[in-house]
Amino acid sequence: xxxxxxxxxxxxxxxxxxxxxxxxxxxxxxxxxxxxxxxxxxxxxxxxxxxxxxxxxxxxxxxxxxxxxxxxxxxxxxxxxxxxxxxxxxxxxxxxxxxxxxxxxxxxxxxxxxxxxxxxxxxxxxxxxxxxxxxxxxxxxxxxxxxxxxx
Length: 151
Known about the structure:
Blueprint: E1 6-9, H1 15-25, H2 31-43, E2 48-55, E3 58-68, E4 77-85, H3 94-108, E5 114-116, H4 123-131
Parallel strand pairs: 4-5
Antiparallel strand pairs: 1-2, 2-3, 3-4
């Protein structure tokens, strides 16, 4: 029998565990940066939130999202910026529990649409979202600026 998972708001004490989860996803971010980013996200409330999934041995997943007003729609758009569950526990419903929690958060803020980006090589992740009612739409373009300082 699988241990239950609890979903709660992320706290600064979770930064080490979240840093490890982000590394699993390919985002090498140290705990101090995670902590600073969380504090910024918390200061932008109520439109931003981060939640963690906790099992008896600690934090095993994280999701972060925000709502943003836009000119071209009557309601805010929700955006999931990160969702990761430790590789050892994928397929146990933890990602779904995190997604449901953030969907409730965004709907409470009046969002009528949620967007999420997934790397093109993460085919299992694409299936995950499709099974939960998300559809692929559009093409994303990015531009990164060299030497930009996160602080």
